[in-house]
Amino acid sequence: MSFFKKLKEKFIIEPEIVDEKKEDDIESSEEDKELEEDAELQDSAQLEGETEVVNEPEEGQEVEQDEGSIDEPVGETVDEQAGDPFDEAYDETYDAPGENDMDVLQEESIASKFKKGLAKTRNSFTTKINDLVAKYRTVDEDFFEELEEVLISADVGVNAVMEMIEELEMEVKRRNIKDTSQVKEVISEKLVELYYGEETEESIEELSQNPDGLTIYLFVGVNGVGKTTTIGKLAHQLKSDGKKVTLAAGDTFRAGAIDQLDEWGKRAGVNVIKHSEGSDPAAVIYDGIKSAKSKDADVLICDTAGRLQNKVNLMNELSKVKRVIEREVPGAPHEVLLVLDATTGQNAMSQAKTFSEATDVSGIVLTKLDGTAKGGIVLAIRNELQIPVKLVGLGEKVTDLETFDANAFVYGLFADMIEEQETEQEEL
């Protein structure tokens, strides 16, 4: 079976199946709505008071004050960067998700989300591949040289491209492929192999969880990448899955960051622990852990101040936060997620390298993948740093945060070619 056909069968759902699912969803959502209305009458007072403002820890409280603790003045920590309107300056006109965003939206298949989210990359990539195939009728050295340039221009990364071209040449010889049009499927197949390598898909994709108690996710990254927005979306996703979630507003430096996370917490209906602006982030995280344990929460998501990788003091402060987490919950944090902006291309790669040296980054969250024509950065990060991409942002809606799937990613890149091949086969 061809690889394009495998992708098609894996991700494309027959229309009648989708229609049946929609009918079932409508019926179940009506029943859920009635139950939710009853629950809201009982819990509305509690939800109004879910945000906890914790006073500064008194002298002697069990929050370590290491030599590496940082007491920098507010406003002198990190240069602001233009970015996601949800994650940068707190703007009253566009500062948090609206009420309608938190409604249960019409469910899309993973394939359609990746297809839509990768439209810019696909349009650029597909055009260049088709032009290349039209230019060369036979597979030769010149063909591979230009293919190399196409892949590098998509930010796949020089090392990853060199490895892939070498494997492509071997595979083309093994299959005795002469026609360049037949190379398209081999490229898609090798892209998936390049990402997963020898690891199983399950071990790469899923966020780690603590089977014996509180799961803690620590989010890090520079300002402007969509960090706080991603936390809000993940909180909503986990809450929808039936998890009890607590957020810790550890970004005490950026103006409006606490209010922004607080608003996300209200919209998602989850508990938020916060101190006053400029307070010690480690103390916030400490109180977040205590609150999450007392409320028997399943997941604690910790926000941290946006920090540039060259700010040594702030990186030291991050280490302090990690030590507090490790002391209070052995084995935690269960994920240290570095949030990167896909639109920054190789700059994101530079950030990933430096953060991975400063802290044990376990996974990447790549935001704004829908806003770039160079989505190949996903493969570059995985190949060069051996850090898996755990989550990707494919749009602005609250439901547009997806678990990364390399097969779905490649389907999104080659969707037009797959549909074109299907049309040609139907005409035969």
UniProtKB/TrEMBL annotation:
Top EC class of this enzyme: hydrolase
Enzyme Commission designation: 3.6.5.4
Membrane topology per record: Peripheral membrane protein
GO biological process, one term: SRP-dependent cotranslational protein targeting to membrane
NCBIfam families in alphabetical order: ftsY (TIGR00064)
Assembly, per entry: Part of the signal recognition particle protein translocation system, which is composed of SRP and FtsY.
Name of this chain's protein: Signal recognition particle receptor FtsY
